[in-house]
Design goal:
By secondary structure, the protein is an alpha+beta fold. It is 26% helix and 22% strand. Strands 1, 2, 3, 4, 5 and 6 form a six-stranded antiparallel sheet that branches. The chain binds heme C.
Length: 163
Amino acid sequence: MKTLLQTLLLLCASALAQAATLPADWAKWTSVHTTLTAIGALPDCSANVSKLPPIYQETVKTYCSVRPGGPGKVSILVRPEAMKAYSSRDGKFPDGADMILHLIDMKALFVTTYVGGKPTYNVFTEDGHDATAASGPLAAATCNTCHTGYQSFCKNGQCGSKK
Ligand code: HEC
C-alpha cells in the first residue's frame, strides 16, 4: 500500500509531466538573443564556466555530459503571442507551448508550456515526439528545480531575458 507521501509525490510528478504537444509551427517562432545564445552553445564538462552566474554554472553541470562534447549549439524561440510576456518578464504567459530552448546539435527541444498560467516542462524531438524522461537531466522535475526553483532568477518559468 502506498503511503500518503508517495501518493502526493506521484500526483506532483504527473502534474509536472503534464501531457503537452509541440505546435507544428515551432520553427517559425521568434528567435531571441539572450546571455545563453550569446555564448552560443552548452559546452562539455571540461569548460571553465566559473565566471558565469551560478544558475548558468548549474546548467552546464546538469547538461554537459548528456552528449560527448556537450549539448552544443542552442537557440531560443518564443511563440509570437508570448513575446510580450517574454520581453517584459511579467510572468503572464498565455496558455499553451510558449518557449523553446532548441538544442540544435542534439535535435532536441526543451519546451515550456503554460497550463492555467503555470509552467510545465517537456522535452521533444524536432518531429514532436515527447522525449521527457522520468528521471535525470531530461525529467520535468529537473527542469522545475531551476525554472521554478530559482525564484531570484527565473520569473514564472522564464529564466533568460532578451538582450
Ligand atoms: C540547471 C538549471 C536549468 C535546468 C535544470 C533547466 N534549465 Fe532551462 N534554462 C536555464 C537557464 C539559466 C536558461 C536561460 C538561458 C538564457 O537564455 O540566457 C534556460 C532557458 C530555457 C528556455 C528558454 C526560455 C527561458 O526560460 O529563458 C526553455 C524553454 C527552457 N530553458 C526549458 C527547460 C526544460 C524543458 C528543462 C528540462 C528538460 C530545462 N529548461 C532545464 C536553466 C535550466
